[in-house]
Amino acid sequence: MILYLHGFRSSPDSYKARVMLARMQALGRADEIACPALSPSPLLAMQQAEALLAGHAAKDISIIGSSLGGYYATWLAEKYGCKAVLLNPAVKPPRDLESYVGVTTYFHSQEVFEFKAEYVNELRAYAIDTISSPDRYFLLAATGDEVLDWREMVTHYPRAKQLVIEGSDHGISEFADYVDQVLAFCDGEDE
């Protein structure tokens, strides 16, 4: 089972989510991936994610997290002992998202939502200072990320499998070039 978690202000309609879903469909594995539209509340988003993981053994779970979804994926991977692929993950979202408190829109729909001050506190509950098993993590970090600092990502996931992409952007606009490497890691075929 692969659980894909999108980032802040994003959705299952993001480019990377669509690439993942299309690749799984092409492989005849569409029933093996879930990509929920996460609540802006970190507490509710994590409840959504955990509900989808219920009943699955850790060895059968891989979580792919993009940006804020990477922060969530790290916490879930530590809790469940499963694999996580991190795509330009947020390392310190309580710090980075504090300035977004208020009313904003999603990128792919222009639907309005409120990011409340208490959500910043909710984010703090999911902080992981040090990952316990680097071999369960695969980090893709783009040096051209215009939103988050790739060096923070690399430092936060020491000894994990890392692919530092020269250039690119926060959305990893050439993600289709990496999707098979991501799936190989999830499937344990790169060990």
Task: Report what the structure shows.
With 191 residues, the protein is of the alpha/beta class. The chain has one domain: Alpha/Beta hydrolase fold, catalytic domain (Rossmann fold). The protein is 34% helix and 18% strand. The protein is built from seven helices and eight strands; from the N terminus they run βαβαβαβαββαβαβα. It has helices at residues 15-26, 42-53, 68-80, 93-97, 117-124, 150-156, 179-186, and strands at residues 2-5, 33-34, 62-66, 83-87, 102-105, 112-115, 137-142, 161-165. Strands 2-1-3-4-7-8 form a six-stranded parallel beta sheet, sandwiched between helices. Helix 1 (15-26) links the parallel strand 1 and strand 2. The longest helix has 13 residues, at 68-80. The mean pLDDT is 96.
How many separate domains? 1
Topology as a string of helices (H) and strands (E): EHEHEHEHEEHEHEH
Put simply, the count of helices is: 7
Give the helix proportion (percent range): 25-40%
CATH class: Alpha Beta
Sheet with most strands: strand arrangement: 2-1-3-4-7-8
Strand percentage lies at 15-25%
Largest sheet: 6 strands, parallel
Reported by name, the CATH topology is Rossmann fold
Mean pLDDT over all positions: 96
- Class derived from helix and strand content: alpha/beta
Round the Cα radius of gyration to an integer and report it. Answer: 15 Å
Give the overall silhouette.
Answer: globular
**How far is it from the N-terminal to the C-terminal residue, by CA?**
18 Å
